[in-house]
Specification:
Length: 630
């Protein structure tokens, strides 16, 4: 398949490894590509041949040829390749004994050894089971319809023929015995693959449960999203219908206004026309009168009779033919329409600014609408021997021989408690201390260190998974919080100060000020991020501070406004480097560079202790319980 093909060599992956950008290549192809990039060798990084994103080399002091070997193997891709490989089917075929074939004989195979990947006849099976090295191998009977799946050989890619039996936990790499001798003899933690099997199986089963719950969440989310889409479609139809209705009403009103204006124009013009026609009639009557008077005068002049002339003259002098005064009197009492015109408003501008309505869009408030976490388990820490109700201060999680062990400090009962499941039964352990414990942090896979401030003590405890006190060191001051910086030093928080200590409790450096100002007040919670920097939560200064392992300030987060920290307590990080901090009844998530991401509310009343394991399961302490969220 195409997704199982390396884009460099165009062939199926061979020993695939995945870079930081999640692009996968053959390990030999990555090595060849690095050797063509002098800039990458100089910067001690592995650039992705596909997207050019750099991946840091875990140990750049090793030869360049071994850089790609330090990259974590892509187990999922390798398993997919194994699934794609054809299985060996015995249905309808006759498989010969592999050992007899080497001797030149042809004997029907009776069983299949999945460990050695050979067919064996009945005679060779007896010899195989008699051999101490193979007596416990799984055998598959081939007498019926059986489909045998070949197991992928765990063979070292560097030393052909060598079987991978060890794991270097420092380099996170599965290796053979020769690799251990040549390349990993200086590594501190090289264990057998067999010893890791319980832990790996536990984590894989837990991962299956987590992924199953996430699948269920995603299915629920998809159903809700489909429901939202259907709702959006219904809303769209309703809004479009409403808009159309409004527009139709507006058009109807405009047409009604048009009819009203037309009728008004018609009435005015008809009235004006009637007035003008009446004026024409009057003018015609006057014109006829004037003609008649002219004829009367002409006849008097023609007759040259004194009486005719006198009558004509008397008629003119008396004004019998003048009608202007009468007309002027009439028009003085009646307003006449002189003209008509239509002055339109700026209709285009009115239409441009026509406010038919507006579309309101509501958005989800990302600060409130958060992705919900699934509550996986609840552990009640009350146990026999408690004199008071528990008050949990801090929590961490160990995996001891494949057994998950939650370890908490109980302030009120002056003890450290562990909770675990053994043989499907819930178990617990209780270790009393001289005084009230505060902060707890992992020293290694099986050990934790606990701060006991009132006794000026730092105690080391081992989980078996029952709790066993290993050692106690006395310090010059009371420490409330602890974090392991490296195998030879740790950080400890006291009032107004964070000290860098050696493993014997001696102060190497004290961090108190930054730019001339007091840096800490109550640094009572701290942790180390995946870059080795120290994160300090201080509810006195309402801040989170990032320090290097030497104690230098990288950044300080004390935001104002709605995102201001109120009372930061327990602090931890996720596998991606994001920061989680308990703050006044909620958990706030920040990016590695302290940018706000989201906040989780209503998870638990009065959260205090907080821890995130390698699978991003979140453990939150209330007063008397530990809640696991996935």
């Amino acid at each position: 398949m195409e997704f199982l093909t390396c884009v460099i060599c165009k062939e199926q992956y061979t020993d695939p490894c995945t870079l930081r950008c999640d692009h996968t290549f053959c390990r030999k192809c990555v090595t060849s590509y690095i050797q063509t990039r002098p800039d990458a060798i100089q910067s001690k990084t592995i650039p992705c041949p596909y997207c050019r994103q750099d991946t840091n080399v875990p140990d750049p002091r090793r030869p360049v040829e071994e850089w790609a070997g330090q990259i974590k193997a892509s187990i999922i891709i390798q398993e997919l390749i194994g699934i794609q490989e054809p299985s060996t089917s015995t249905a309808g075929t006759v498989s010969c004994c592999s050992l007899c074939e080497k001797l030149g004989e042809t004997t029907r195979g009776a069983l299949w050894c999945s460990e050695c990947e050979v067919f064996l006849c009945k005679r060779c099976v007896k010899m195989h089971r008699a051999n101490p090295a193979s007596h416990d191998h799984d055998m598959c009977d081939l007498s019926g319809e059986v489909k045998v799946k070949r197991r992928r050989k765990a063979v070292c890619p560097e030393h052909k023929g060598e079987v991978i039996k060890f794991v270097c936990k420092d380099c996170h790499k599965a290796v053979c015995q020769t690799c251990c001798v040549l390349h990993h003899r200086k590594c501190e933690s090289v264990v057998t693959m067999e010893s890791l099997m319980p832990t790996m199986k536990y984590h894989l089963r837990k991962s299956t449960n987590v992924l199953t719950k996430k699948v269920s969440k995603k299915q629920t989310l998809i159903r809700k999203t489909h429901k939202k889409i259907r709702g959006i479609e219904k809303t769209k139809v309703a809004v479009q219908g409403h808009i159309k209705s409004v527009v139709e009403r507006v058009i109807a009103n405009i047409k009604q206004k048009e009819k009203q204006l037309m009728n008004e124009v018609k009435g005015i013009t008809d009235k004006q026309t009637q007035q003008l026609k009446a004026d024409i009639k009057l003018e015609e009557i006057e014109m006829q009168l004037y003609r008649q008077h002219c004829e009367f005068i002409d006849q008097a002049l023609v007759s040259d009779c004194e009486m005719d002339l006198y009558d004509a003259y008397q008629a003119w002098e008396s004004g019998a033919v003048e009608m202007e005064d009468v007309r002027d009197t009439e028009t003085a009492d009646t307003r006449r329409i002189d003209g008509i015109r239509f002055t339109p408003y700026n209709v285009l501008k009115v239409l441009d600014n026509l406010q038919l309505g507006k579309i309101d869009v509501t958005y989800q408030d990302q600060g409130k609408c958060l992705p919900s976490l699934v509550l996986g388990d609840t552990i009640d820490v009350r146990m026999e021997g408690d004199e008071k109700d528990p008050l949990l201060f801090d929590v961490t999680v160990l995996v001891v021989d494949g057994v998950q062990t939650c370890v908490v400090t109980d302030y009120n009962n002056k003890c450290v408690k562990s909770h675990f499941t053994r043989n499907n039964h819930s178990c617990h352990s209780r270790l009393p201390l001289d005084n009230t414990p505060h902060g707890i942090t992992q020293l290694n896979e099986k050990q934790v260190i606990v701060a006991v401030p009132e006794s000026h003590q730092i105690v080391t405890i081992e989980g078996t998974p029952d709790l066993v006190l290993l050692s106690t060191i006395t310090t010059h001051t009371e420490y409330f919080s602890l974090a392991v910086l490296n195998p030879s030093s740790l950080a400890a928080g006291t009032r107004n100060c964070v000290d860098i200590l050696d493993m014997a409790g001696h102060v190497l450096r004290s961090v108190t000020t930054y730019n001339g100002d007091s840096l800490f007040a109550c640094p009572f919670y701290m942790c180390v991020n995946n870059k080795g920097n120290l994160l300090v939560s201080d509810y006195g200064k309402r801040s989170v501070t990032c320090l290097t392992s030497e104690g230098d300030v990288v950044w300080r987060h004390a935001s104002a406004g709605d995102r201001a920290l109120c009372s930061p307590h327990s602090i931890t990080t996720t596998t991606t480097g994001d920061i989680l901090v308990v703050d006044w009844g909620k958990v706030i998530q920040l990016t590695e560079s302290r940018e706000f991401v989201r906040e989780y509310r209503d998870m638990v009343d009065y959260p205090r202790g907080l821890y995130v394991d390698s699978h991003d399961s979140m453990y939150v302490c209330s007063l008397t319980q530990i809640l696991e969220f996935q």
